[in-house]
Amino acid sequence: MSAGAPGSAMRATMRAMVYRGAGPALALEEWPVPAPGAGEVLIRVSACGVCRTDLHVVDGDLTEPRLPVVPGHEVVGRVAALGAGVERFREGERVGVPWLGWTCGACRYCLSGRENLCPEALFTGYTRDGGYGDYCVADERYCLPVAGARSDMHAAPLLCAGLIGHRALRMAGDAERIGLYGFGAAAHIIAQVARAEGRRVFAFVRPGDDAAIAFARGLGAAWAGPSDEAPPEELDAALLFAPVGALVPAALRAIAPGGTVVCAGIHMSEIPAFPYELLWRERRIVSVANLTREDGEAFLALAASTPIEMHVEPVALADANLALDRLRAGRLQGAAVLTMD
Ligand SMILES: [Zn+2]
Ligand SMILES: [Zn+2]
Fold first, then answer.
1. Among the listed residues 99, 278, 252, the one whose alpha carbon sits nearest the alpha carbon of residue 181
2. Which of 226, 253, 223 is nearest to 238 (CA)?
3. Which of 8, 202, 213, 338 has the fewest CB atoms within 10 Å, counting from its CB?
């Protein structure tokens, strides 16, 4: 490991919010600053977005974490040290670390442009330590350069909410009328991307959440209403960001023949039985799994040139549990982002 930049104060220990398998709270611990191995970079984290997937880790919905683990996969920071053989990045460069942390490179998925499906893949903040700490180590091949003028805090939610949201949007093809179920961090970004592409957005929120309705309308939704209400016209596709299985038949009812329901989350409650006629006439249900590096680069390039009003709520690292509680309770508008200073 090479030394930090001259004059930079690299500490021997760091703060980390740690999940040890007994949720629902993370523990603030002092850990040694990790050393980057061959091909890895050490990153001084400055911001890390709080994603619903972190909640699924902490709540035990995702059952195979490597323990103990530092969650967080919307990491933005600067390269602080280089492991042996690192070529893509220099010290001081701004980088992002997304959910996909490593793949085998040899399986049928990796060899066919579908590394998001690699059965050996490692995931940041789940099976590799992530960004809920002052430093993290990442394989340089899976880091993404973060260009553009956005602050670290405003860039962080792009790394998953934006990126996975965009993969979900692409699965909707050229659908013009897009329903977004669950208007949180991902939907608030993707609503704006979809509008910039000339699509119309219909936002479905938790019944009773009038603030979310106003939020969605403020970001240009053609219509916003509770998820138990029918939209004013048929939709061409629906993207489900809320982890609620009952929304699948609801969304099938809302889409036109040939339309697609895209389940964008990594976890969802059970989908209730529904009559075949809801699916009939070539409606489709698909899921989105993870990302490829190609997705990451394409989306960050798009985001750098698309005006996106990012709504972020800064939360101090040590208060990560509060951010998770608020996300769990649906009391966030936009994205919570942990800040390290
Ligand atoms: Zn593979
Ligand atoms: Zn995520």
1. 252
2. 253
3. 8
Residues 18 and 154 in one domain: yes
Determine the structural domain holding residue 179 and report its residue range. Answer: 162-287
CA distances to 35, 162, 320, 328 from 20, in Å: 21, 28, 15, 19
Residue with tokens 């119309």: 200
> What residues does the ion ligand 2 have nearby, CB within 5 Å?
51, 53, 160
Q: Are residues 45 and 152 in the same domain?
A: yes
The total number of structural domains in the chain stands at 2
Query: From the CA of 189, how far away is ligand 2's center (Å)?
Result: 13
38 and 75 inside one domain = yes
pLDDT at 9: 64
- Tell me the angle at which helices 210-218 and 185-196 cross, rounded to the nearest 10 degrees: 30
Residue 6's pLDDT band, with cuts at 50, 70 and 90, is very low
Here the tokens at position 4 are 């930090």
State in Å: Cα 70 to ligand 1 middle. Answer: 24
- Asked if omega into 243 is within 30° of 0 (cis), the reply is no
pLDDT of residue 306: 92
* Nearest-angstrom CA–CA distance, 78 and 62: 29
* Mean pLDDT calculated for residue range 260-282: 97
What is the value of pTM for the model shown? Answer: 0.94
